């Protein structure tokens, strides 16, 4: 009887592993797709998880994310925010200094979003995970000094496991919660069992509320150029959810675009309205990192997002030999930046 129980448990464990590998595309590889004029960005070695670009061409890059279950090549080094001027012929990065009074030693930046007020002041909102908690930091960008002045830390009981944000007004933003459990093993189980306890919330000084539910792992979030629709990446569901924004900031699902890759951050080309998605083609390799067989990278370009049949093209793909674990892609004036969770960053001229 005991042997039968052991065999049954082994069989169940094996079935669970097989199911897990299938769900996370453990055997998927990508054929290389690389623009001709690409080069790694010198100075970025520990990730470029999220990127946002001002209309002026200044790009902000968050680096050094320490995230449960993900590798980190500089675990004792605080996170950083880099800037890159895409108007220059051969742009290079520069680290932005952060004002005194902010706990820079525990800075652990994740998703970022910029906001420009009526007086043309630029603010950078940063998802931060000090001591693996979730806060939202508001900085004012001082362009002449190339610095960030810390203005405020936002904390709230609903701001848990925050992944990405999109700012829609002064201290008003949408935020994604990518998992429910804090424990890494339970998080993996949550994704495997498809609990769909992940959600999107809206924050303002007057009201904080959940505005969309039922995601497996709500990740990147962005908005259409006309400000009428929100696009949400559901990473482990391998999909992008298109939602309509209502006057009270609530969201209603219009459609879901199903893909064959794990979607991370999303950006929108302001000129065309096309969506760019930084993706992980093989979820198993990103979760169980092996430097001898690293995770690849994939960038999708999605046109006609609101139509019945959006056009989806792969504009970058690499097996990990150049870029590992792409998390974001963003364009400006025929220039493309591709960031990663924990690795390098790529600059391409299209």
From TrEMBL:
<dbReference type="InterPro" id="IPR002640">
    <property type="entry name" value="Arylesterase"/>
</dbReference>
<dbReference type="Pfam" id="PF01731">
    <property type="entry name" value="Arylesterase"/>
</dbReference>
<dbReference type="GO" id="GO:0005615">
    <property type="term" value="C:extracellular space"/>
</dbReference>
<keyword id="KW-0732">Signal</keyword>
<keyword id="KW-0106">Calcium</keyword>
<feature type="glycosylation site" description="N-linked (GlcNAc...) asparagine">
    <location>
        <position position="319"/>
    </location>
</feature>
<dbReference type="InterPro" id="IPR051288">
    <property type="entry name" value="Serum_paraoxonase/arylesterase"/>
</dbReference>
<keyword id="KW-0378">Hydrolase</keyword>
<feature type="binding site">
    <location>
        <position position="112"/>
    </location>
    <ligand>
        <name>Ca(2+)</name>
    </ligand>
</feature>
<keyword id="KW-0325">Glycoprotein</keyword>
<feature type="disulfide bond" description="In form B">
    <location>
        <begin position="38"/>
        <end position="348"/>
    </location>
</feature>
<feature type="signal peptide">
    <location>
        <begin position="1"/>
        <end position="19"/>
    </location>
</feature>
<comment type="function">
    <text>Capable of hydrolyzing lactones and a number of aromatic carboxylic acid esters.</text>
</comment>
<keyword id="KW-1015">Disulfide bond</keyword>
<comment type="subunit">
    <text>Homotrimer.</text>
</comment>
<protein>
    <recommendedName>
        <fullName>Paraoxonase</fullName>
        <ecNumber>3.1.1.2</ecNumber>
    </recommendedName>
</protein>
<feature type="binding site">
    <location>
        <position position="264"/>
    </location>
    <ligand>
        <name>Ca(2+)</name>
    </ligand>
</feature>
<feature type="active site" description="Proton acceptor">
    <location>
        <position position="110"/>
    </location>
</feature>
<dbReference type="GO" id="GO:0009636">
    <property type="term" value="P:response to toxic substance"/>
</dbReference>
<dbReference type="InterPro" id="IPR011042">
    <property type="entry name" value="6-blade_b-propeller_TolB-like"/>
</dbReference>
<feature type="binding site">
    <location>
        <position position="49"/>
    </location>
    <ligand>
        <name>Ca(2+)</name>
    </ligand>
</feature>
<feature type="binding site">
    <location>
        <position position="163"/>
    </location>
    <ligand>
        <name>Ca(2+)</name>
    </ligand>
</feature>
<feature type="binding site">
    <location>
        <position position="164"/>
    </location>
    <ligand>
        <name>Ca(2+)</name>
    </ligand>
</feature>
<feature type="binding site">
    <location>
        <position position="265"/>
    </location>
    <ligand>
        <name>Ca(2+)</name>
    </ligand>
</feature>
<feature type="glycosylation site" description="N-linked (GlcNAc...) asparagine">
    <location>
        <position position="265"/>
    </location>
</feature>
<dbReference type="GO" id="GO:0102007">
    <property type="term" value="F:acyl-L-homoserine-lactone lactonohydrolase activity"/>
</dbReference>
<dbReference type="GO" id="GO:0004064">
    <property type="term" value="F:arylesterase activity"/>
</dbReference>
<keyword id="KW-0479">Metal-binding</keyword>
<comment type="similarity">
    <text>Belongs to the paraoxonase family.</text>
</comment>
<feature type="binding site">
    <location>
        <position position="219"/>
    </location>
    <ligand>
        <name>Ca(2+)</name>
    </ligand>
</feature>
<dbReference type="GO" id="GO:0046872">
    <property type="term" value="F:metal ion binding"/>
</dbReference>
<feature type="binding site">
    <location>
        <position position="50"/>
    </location>
    <ligand>
        <name>Ca(2+)</name>
    </ligand>
</feature>
């Amino acid at each position: 009887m005991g042997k039968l129980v052991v065999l049954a448990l082994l069989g169940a464990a094996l079935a669970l592993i097989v199911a897990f590998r299938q769900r996370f595309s453990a055997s998927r590889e990508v054929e290389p797709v690389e623009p001709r004029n690409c080069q790694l960005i010198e100075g970025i070695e520990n990730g470029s998880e999220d990127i946002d670009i001002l209309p002026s061409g200044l790009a902000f890059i968050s680096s050094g994310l320490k995230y449960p279950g993900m590798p980190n090549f500089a675990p004792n080094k605080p996170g950083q925010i880099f800037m890159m001027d895409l108007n220059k012929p051969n742009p290079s990065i520069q680290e932005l200094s952060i004002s005194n009074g902010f706990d820079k030693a525990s800075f652990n930046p994740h998703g970022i979003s910029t906001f420009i007020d009526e007086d043309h002041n630029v603010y950078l909102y940063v998802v931060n995970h000090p001591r693996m908690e979730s806060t939202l930091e508001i900085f004012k960008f001082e362009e002449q000094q190339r610095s960030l002045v810390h203005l405020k830390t936002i904390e709230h009981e609903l701001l848990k496991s925050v992944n990405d944000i999109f700012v829609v007004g002064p201290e008003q933003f949408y935020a994604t919660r990518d998992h429910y459990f804090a424990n890494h093993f339970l998080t993996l189980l949550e994704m495997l069992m498809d609990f769909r306890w992940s959600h999107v919330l809206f924050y303002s000084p007057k009201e904080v509320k959940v505005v969309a539910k039922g995601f497996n792992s709500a990740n990147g979030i962005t908005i259409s150029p006309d400000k009428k629709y929100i696009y949400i990446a559901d990473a482990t569901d391998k999909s992008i959810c298109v939602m309509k924004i209502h006057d009270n900031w609530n969201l209603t699902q219009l459609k879901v675009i199903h893909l064959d890759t794990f979607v991370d951050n999303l950006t929108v080309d302001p000129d065309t309205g096309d969506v760019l998605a930084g993706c992980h083609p093989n979820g198993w390799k990103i979760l169980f990192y092996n430097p001898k067989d690293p995770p690849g990278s994939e960038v999708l370009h999605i046109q006609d997002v609101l139509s019945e049949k959006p056009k989806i093209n792969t504009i970058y793909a690499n097996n990990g030999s150049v870029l590992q674990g792409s998390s974001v892609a963003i364009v400006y004036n025929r220039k493309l930046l591709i960031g990663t969770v924990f690795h390098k960053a790529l600059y391409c001229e299209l």
